[in-house]
Amino acid sequence: MTQLTSLGITTLPLDVLSQPSIDTCASQLSSLDILVNNAGAMYAMPISDLSIPKAKELFDLNLWSYLAVTQAFLPLLLKSNGIIANHTSSASVITLPFQATYNASKAAVAVYSDTLRLELEPFGVRVVDLKSGSAASNMGTEAKVLAGKAAILPKGSLYEVAKERVERSMSGVDYQKGAVSAEVWAEGVVSELLKGRTPKVVWRGKGAWLVSYLALLPSWVTDGIWKGMTGLDVVAKAVNVAGKGK
Question: Is 213 one of the annotated active-site residues of the chain?
Fold first, then answer.
């Protein structure tokens, strides 16, 4: 924030999980052209092992905060015929193992966003879905904060047969390889939002366009890809070997 201030940009505190903070921030603005809902965190864990309270925490941040912020700033956007850009991620259209809670939260935002687009169209407010691929961020750190520690399988997990491979997948380290910088991602998104014809969806970041095409393919094609990416194929082999040894 200090860097932004040095560039002459005015910054305001905003806790998207606090309604009083949201209301206070909104009350300090007299106009608004573009609202970007970008807050979010990751929670990776097999469905059979995940913590329901932690999953609810993730939805509070990844979904409900978007609605709360949008409602608070909507009066300003109605005056300016502005734009609402919701960061849903390319994860909203794929079924990546061990990321069900995160993907489901992003899919929920995507449906909410597209519905909002239709509802606000008569009033001149445009809504854009940002389906981003990998971009450099502190998402991994946020995931550790949410989980209380790095992603580790609980003792007795079904996936202990391939513990090291699964935990590597849960860490997200492989997905960040080759990720575009935050600056490159932001420049691309801004150029799309400022086009004469505002797009409904913006695909930016490493792998985003690939995911957009894979989402069109039948599951019998993509299942193998997702299994290989996450180590679920290693789990299947380990379970098969263990079964033969009985």
Answer: no
